[in-house]
Design brief:
With 76 residues, this protein is mainly alpha-helical. It has a domain at 19-68. Helices cover 63% and strands 0% of the residues. The protein is elongated, with a radius of gyration of 19 Å.
């Protein structure tokens, strides 16, 4: 009987645990905590600072991914 299916390729060995992913994760966590404290205590500088940390972290993570420190993609 002929094979009518294809086995999917194996996932990358790093399981998504890359430098770009860790920078994004911890940057968003730290930025969220700073923004939450600023919001709770009505400190505008801290609130907007936390939001800025999140935005800058997203940009840094995208830069790291572009530099090759992110999840490898398969070229089809």
């Amino acid at each position: 009987m002929p094979k009518t299916y294809e086995v999917p390729p194996a996932p990358p060995a790093n399981h998504g645990s890359t430098l770009a992913a860790w920078v994004l994760t911890w940057g968003v966590v730290i930025g969220s905590v700073v923004a939450a404290v600023g919001f709770s205590l009505d400190i505008d500088f801290a609130t907007y600072g936390g939001i800025a940390i999140i935005v800058l972290t997203c940009a840094a993570s995208l830069g790291l991914r572009a530099a090759g420190f992110g999840q490898k993609t398969k070229k089809a």
